Amino acid sequence: MAADAMTPLQRLAAYAKGEPIDRLPCVPIVGNTAARVIGARVGDFRGNGRLIAEAQVAAYRLFGYDTIRVFTDLYTQAEAMGATVHYPADETAYLEAPAIADPAEIQRLQPADPHRDGNLPHHLEAMRIAVDAVGAEVPVTGAVTCPFTNASFLVGAETLARLMLREPETVHRLCELSLETSIRYAEAIIEAGAIPSLTDAMSSSTVISPRQFREFSYPYLKRLIDFIHGRGKSVTLHICGKTAKIWEAMADAGADCISIDNDASLLDAKREVGEWVRLMGNVHPSAVMLQGTPEDVRQATLDCIRQGHDNPRGYIVASGCSLPTETPFANIRAMLDTVREVGWPVNLA
User: What keywords is this UniProt entry annotated with (predicted)?
Assistant: First the structure.
């Protein structure tokens, strides 16, 4: 397989201008799989920005994809605001207890200081180290959990669902607090030389209705994106699961690129919002990337390229969500090799 002729930064800049490129951008969304590249345990990432950076830089150098994403789990901001997060020795962290047990305790909550609270300072350290190491050739991004999703971690998903019906003003207060944390963290990410990348799992139409999204998530998402745009950065937004009924709202919120989960259709997204946003996705991270063969990955990647390569605002080949930790290296290579094979303009013959 021929080597890349451009660095990721060169490729992305040329692609944005409609200039010649060597291949489509490709981002198998490597999160904790990076631990396996350096023989580390996932739990070792806790409190260790230098190790996170070492793993992410090593994974980028091994596979040659187009964006480094500093990410370990969804709960870093909520933990910094008081939630209890459990860190297994070698699995992805999970929420053990929300920050407050009763919505009446909301006055105890304060926005996090990303330079002091929880693991946020260590993630910022990882971004700074990665930027210093390879930032001249590849974008380094930092994952920001969006306000509505973070709010669910502060009070618990079931409680939040009840509050949306019975005490909507409390949900808005939680989202305001979460927004302030998200903005502070996004600003710190930019100061570290990286780019905020937004993830909003609980805003999925699999979890809440499109009406609830517009009432409780969209206003805060838009303000966060406006803030990032005001700092001169573009925004990639990922919402898990089914999102077809909120694509227009995601674009209207200001997202420059929408990351499409494997539960959604790239073809439908292209028809609905392709004139306004770049699309990214959506090879299945579990059924294909984790459990499939390299040939399965090749075929799934080709299918996605067929569907998305002619999107009016551009297309990035990617997994539908973060890769499971044990994703075989051969499958990650197969995605990149397939993208290199078809080149640009794509040759699918």
Answer: Methyltransferase, Transferase
Structure tokens at 250: 């995601």
pLDDT per residue, tens digit, the chain (349 aa), is: 568 999 999 999 999 999 999 999 999 999 999 999 999 999 999 999 999 999 999 999 999 999 999 999 999 999 999 999 999 999 999 999 999 999 999 999 999 999 999 999 999 999 999 999 999 999 999 999 999 999 999 999 999 999 999 999 999 999 999 999 999 999 999 999 999 999 999 999 999 999 999 999 999 999 999 999 999 999 999 999 999 999 999 999 999 999 999 999 999 999 999 999 999 999 999 999 999 999 999 999 999 999 999 999 999 999 999 999 999 999 999 999 999 999 999 999 7
Q: Going by C-beta distance under 8 Å and a sequence separation of 6 or more, which residues neighbour residue 142?
A: 69, 70, 71, 123, 124, 127, 185, 189, 192, 194, 195, 196, 197
What fold is seen in the domain 27-341?
Answer: TIM Barrel (3.20.20)
The structural domains of the chain, with segments of one domain joined by +, span 27-341
The residue behind tokens 């297994």 is 88
- Is this prediction's pTM over 0.90? yes
